[in-house]
Design a protein that fits this description.
421 residues, mainly alpha, 20 helices, Growth Hormone, Chain: A
Length: 421
């Protein structure tokens, strides 16, 4: 019995999962630090609300860098290969995250401190622009027949893994340090720890080969000269459809994590450690949703599961705000768990659904650009808009924003309904 394909598949799935675990770890430690300490540390004192808004603006900056990174890494991923491009994106992403640990604060360096923070945040986003699309292709293009969604869900499973690592570390630091110690130096520890995760990701990725689909495409024809140009000439509708389709998953994640943590602790007065613990439990439902969606997508279709998820996003939007403001830990947990399970439905099938929209020669560029452009609409704006809505009309308005994100993603699905079917 030849076990080589089995071990190859294990390495591929591990490489696709580890990379996105590092991605979400890096992004979430920044999001958590932005919610808890970056406002007063890096921005001159006005109101606490203004500091939090500025902090979330730096958080959103990376989402605008991600499409730029998607274009650059997608170009090379479609021309020279998936493996080497993924290694480069991981190194840039990890290096930017590590350097944040050594930044001076505003009290130490004045305006230079927030400038350096923004530069490194841009570097994070630039590297991340090539990460998810490449990881999804690595999994899907190595999948056996009938297994594309189950293989394609592994990059998505990196999200709860990275979240648990990040949130768990912040929880331990909160228990071990007082507020003064955490604000002074404790927040730097998660950024330092990212170096270990990046090293693990590089070690795994350097052991894998090129994907069969890309190797075959290179053998049978020349790569696209300018993948982005070909993408926009021949696949513009698919690009817009993919962009809209991913809005819901980004909106759910960052509202149920970064915004909920910031608003819950700073405005509603919930204890930080208890809220982090609640989020740690709720994220397990996201992992369950991803696994359910992956298996169901192979049995039915990714298009159908994503459509279910968009409808559920609208429904969750109407209960998200009231549950967060309820003051009951059980209701808060159920609200977050429901939201994150639904995120699994609109996130789990994206690996197979989004990559199937594009031919191999522009697939890295197409999947990366659509995914990261959708991140601007659903991720970058979500905490900022939610903070503004909460100040004007309470958390109920935030839930309506989430419902709107579900409608936008449903429109994206309908744009390519025949192609996806």
């Amino acid at each position: 019995m030849d076990l080589a394909p089995y071990y190859t598949h294990r390495r591929v799935l591990a490489a696709s999962l580890v990379g996105t675990a590092v991605e979400f770890y890096d992004f979430y430690i920044y999001g958590t630090a932005a919610a808890l300490v970056f406002g007063p540390l890096f921005f001159p004192g006005e109101s606490g609300s203004a500091q939090l808004m500025y902090s979330f603006m730096t958080f959103g900056l990376a989402f605008f860098a991600r499409p730029v990174g998607a274009i650059v890494f997608g170009h090379y991923g479609d021309r020279i290969g998936r493996k080497s491009t993924l290694v480069a994106s991981l190194m840039l992403m990890g290096g930017s995250t590590l350097l944040i640990a050594f930044l001076p604060t505003y009290a130490m360096a004045g305006w230079i401190a927030p400038l350096l923070l923004c530069i490194l945040r841009f570097g994070q986003g630039f590297g991340l622009g090539g990460e998810w699309g490449g990881a999804a292709l690595l999994a899907v293009e190595n999948a056996p027949p009938g297994w594309k969604s189950r293989f394609g869900m592994f990059p998505q499973l990196g999200a709860p893994v990275g979240f648990i690592a990040a949130n768990g570390l912040f929880l331990l630091l909160g228990l071990a340090l007082d507020e003064a110690q955490f604000s002074s130096w404790g927040w730097r520890i998660p950024f330092l720890f990212s170096a270990l995760l990046v090293g693990l990701g590089l070690w795994v990725r350097l052991k894998i080969g090129e994907t069969p689909d890309f190797s075959e495409a290179i053998e049978t024809g020349k790569p696209a000269g300018i993948p982005l140009g070909e993408l926009f000439r021949n696949h513009l509708v698919a690009t817009f459809a993919g962009t809209f389709a991913v809005v819901a998953c980004f909106a759910i994640f960052y509202l149920a994590t970064s915004f909920a943590l910031a608003h819950g602790t700073a405005v509603l007065g919930y204890p930080k450690e208890q809220f982090l613990l609640i989020q740690l439990g709720a994220i397990l439902f996201m992992a369950g949703g991803i696994i359910f969606a992956g298996y169901t997508s192979d049995a039915r279709s990714a298009q159908r599961v994503l459509t279910w998820g968009c409808g559920a996003t609208v429904l969750v939007g109407f209960v998200f705000g009231p549950s967060l403001a309820s003051g009951s830990w059980l209701i808060i947990f159920l609200g977050l768990a429901a939201a994150l399970f639904v995120m699994g439905l609109v996130y789990g099938p994206l690996g197979s659904w989004l990559t199937a929209l594009f031919p191999v020669r522009v697939r890295y560029t197409g999947a990366s650009v659509a995914f990261n452009a959708g991140g601007i609409l659903g991720g970058a704006l979500a905490p900022i808009v939610a903070q503004a809505l909460a100040e004007r009309g309470g958390t109920e308005l935030v839930g309506l924003y989430l419902a709107l994100a579900g409608v936008v993603s449903w429109i994206g699905l309908m744009m390519v309904r025949r192609q996806a079917a």
